Structures
1.
Amino acid sequence: MLELLQRAAPFLLQALWTTLWIGVVSFVLSLLVGLLVAVARMYGPWLLRAPAAVFVSVIRGTPLLTQILLVYYGLPQLGVTIEAIPAVILTLALHAGAYTSEDIRGGIQSVDRGQWEAGYSSGMTFAQVMRRIILPQAIQTITPSLGNRFITMIKETSLASVVTVVELTRVAEQIGSATFRYMQMFVIVAVIYWAVNSLLSLGQAKLEERMRRAYR
Amino acid sequence: MSHEQLHAGGGPHAHGGVCQIRAENIHKRFGPLEVLKGVSLTVNRGEVVVIMGPSGSGKTTLIRCLNLLEEPDQGKVMVCNLDVTSGEKPPSRTRSNTIRQLRVKAAMVFQSFNLYPHMTALGNTIEGPMQVLGMGREEATRVGEALLKKVGLSDKRDEHPSRLSGGQKQRVAIARALAMSPEVVLFDEPTSALDPELHEEVLQTMRQLAGEGMTMIVVTHEVAFAREVADRVVFMADGVVVEEGPPGEVLVNPKHPRTRSFLRLVEH
């Protein structure tokens, strides 16, 4: 086992890096998607609101794996060919964005109406009230669920393995098949995921604690 | 980010004469309920007008219409040289610009304070000047500190609202309103959410403002304050103004039966 770990280590490190950066980039993009979709659904004109609602419904109603396969293997048929990693990032960002948009929507709605009125009554624009008054307060409510989304995201990057991306899960599969030690490899990779996500949970708890104290 | 300059340099004496605040024939309906049935009100520069009336009389809606937080179904709101007419033209960009300029001139103090909980007392007062008037942080801080001093809260400068008492919150809210250098301050029941023992500190601040010649429109049930500070008392009932005049008349010798019965109630 130790010897296997030693031999696999460079590959695992490389793959961990791939997993992490795909996860982080997708997560950041998903926040953007989530914010746009949330604002479109809440404040957009009908022409924007309806497609945004359909988008959320479709994304939430279909499996992520199907979505990844559709983007990577399906789209080329329509002449749109996307490399594996960008295809995965795109899909993950849209997928998580749909969920995040619901979190953001809830967070924005949880802010007291009087806050909008205070901002508007001083002559601020919608964007100014949103950016300066509402979002900073909404973020406090949203942070716990965003933390969970990030952890989910790290785990979901494993689906990239089905479209040839060499991340943690894929590496375990490759080394496993080369050495016939699937059990060991998947246990190792599972422990890595678990360690990473435990660290993230710890960071999340710290962040929440800090936010709780921020306005006191 | 664009700091839109909204401080239209008209000043108090633009538009030929003295800056007036005017509501003309304001109608407002919430669903089946007609809350304002054609209310008109003119307030001159430096005047302190107290609006009284039973709940549901439309006084809060009226004051919210003056800041366009509530858009009238019909009628015209004027603050100095800016006017916004409701009910005819479809909303446009210039119109929403005018609305924002008007809001700068007609600052609002709310019953429930509506301070920004994520900002300090100073942060609350400098936010508007920086975002809306395009003031730099240094200048805004100078203005904000002076105003906090004026309302007696210099020592609370760096506290968040959650650390302030209700009376202190409302005084910060008054400082925040003043920071926009408004032409008029609209007070929507500023003491109603406060414990009785905290009313006085807020009323004191308002008295001081009135003494400095600030134009004020105050919705309140504080009869003593009205008697002492108001130049004019406007009494509303059922969406119309039923009586108005100097406090010495309206509060002492009310003519309308609705005014009489209301005053009996609030004065015990």
2.
Amino acid sequence: MNRKRALISDTFKVKKRIRIGTEKFGAVSNGDGPTDIKFTLEYLMTLFPRKLFNDALPQIVLKHQLYSIHHDKTLVDKELNKLRERGEVLMFQLGFDAEAFGLIFASDYKAKVLAAEEGRATRATVERFLEKVLSSSTDLSFSKDQMLREFLFTDSEITQLVKAGVLTVRDAGSWWLSIPNSGKFTKFFLRGRKAVLGMVKKSKYSEVLQAELEERRTTVHVKFHMKYHVHDIVGAELVESIPTTSGTMLRFVDS
Amino acid sequence: MLGFLTARQAGLDDPLRLRRAESTRRVLSLTLNPDRDVDRVHGNGVNAIDIDAVEGRYMLSGGADGVIVIYDLENFSGKPQYTCKAVCTVGRSSRHVHKFSVETVQWYPYDTGMFVSSSFDKTMKVWDTETLKPAEVFEFEDNVYSHHLSPIARKHSLIAVGTKNPKIQLCDLKSGSRIHVLQGHRAEVLAVRWSPRYEHILATASADSKVKVWDVRRASGSVLTLDQHNGDKSKASSEAVNTAHNGRVNGLCFTGDGLHLLTTGTDDRMRLWNSATGENTLVNYGKVCNESRKRLQFTVSRGCSPEFVFVPCGSSVAVYALHTGELVTMLRGHYNNVDCCEFHTDYQELYSGGKDCNILAWVPILRTADVEEESNSAPTRAVGQASVNPAFQDAWSSDED
């Protein structure tokens, strides 16, 4: 019998959900129903400004941006791990915050990296790296031991990889997996986040409707799509998002 | 709810299930209730509270000024309106009062005749509830952050004590001496907790970001050190190996069945661990605001399905579903930071104390029963009133004359 399996609290939630449903009518649905992380990822990728980087960067989504769309964070983590294990998605440490992880579709990453390597001397090494390492491991960083013994790279080849930008130095004898030329992204991203947070902070009572914020004219500092930043600050819990009768409201959180 | 009742009536469900359903419903409707107050005795922040496990009737609270108060939670007046009275107080005027802030208070698990309190004045006192005098005083070299008595122990009567010193002390109530030291942490020990399942298992949390699980029968070292990345070295930076958090770990709580362990840290995270294997279950609770420099007392519901976690979060208490990590609700009411909360298992009530000197009672508000027809209820109500307060009716009849 099905009822035995259902969690008890689900019965009590039914009433609540109806009430929330009427409030949300016409607004963006906030992830009820089955969680399709891949679809959400694809949606967030579309917000990424490819033009800004002359299409040289793969589309980057931050992990916590997913939390702004799906409320069950544990489930997001689980689904994401499945995608990573299947090799569809790569995760990167972006460096400016220990909790900020970047997500990229593996095919996109490979294509962009190879395009950048076109006609360079390091191309062969990078190709070997992409083939050998990315297909077999889901690690965020690699130690020297691992690189030399398991993946059979030489010291000079590792230097080439670092030069090509697919590895960055983490500390002595270990490297992060990284995205070539992503420094510009990080710079624009952090500056934009600061500007958007400032906009929320400076509005009356430090709160602003999401729809209104998205319509605002942006300063030169905000290079990305406003929605990209909104998903970021909501997901990282730098602002609180409160459902109101006229849409979602964002309130700055003092911390 | 009606569905559950009919299912129970028809014998489809066992009684436990109905009970769980009702407890869950009550927990989901916890709010501040004007009918329930707790006497305001503390003149300073409330650091710790504890409800006795025997009757669930008496509540202890320890304040930042060293004052300890005992409240009576049981309402015998027959009215919904009730203020939990302070039964007795170890006030500033008492000769035995703690000199500085009381950090932890706990009832003796088998009897309300005794309780234990520890304080920043480097002592831990075992009190006789009857006379409100300490029966035993343990003195330490450093500030005491936390202590705990095993809720189920039958073979030992040890109190684990976490102090500013990285060594964990075990004090024996039988002999009144410090019998053992557990070494392994590198910084002050902010929280200690015995397992409610195995009486020799102890968990400790420290400012060196580590959480260790000990078997006190084993002298050589800890059994487990919890690792937030489950041994996956590629994520952790090299100095952060075997850490439970990326900051000070200041809260520790076992679930009611002792199968899981919850920790909170100043990295604004809460983690759920499998207490048998020490594995991180990777439940993501999101940002759990935590700026406390001292121990944070949080609690888990019992007898609900699913279980809930109540954790102080700034000036409110956040309620999370234990296994999914979903934020159920925020209980807002305190005017300043909340430091401690305790769940009353029998009545599904929550008590929380904070820096605003208040102890707030969060009581389930259920839908009130529909009012019956006036004609039917009026005579019974009059009789009820008369029986409650005859003096009042006398005055009324004399008016009529």
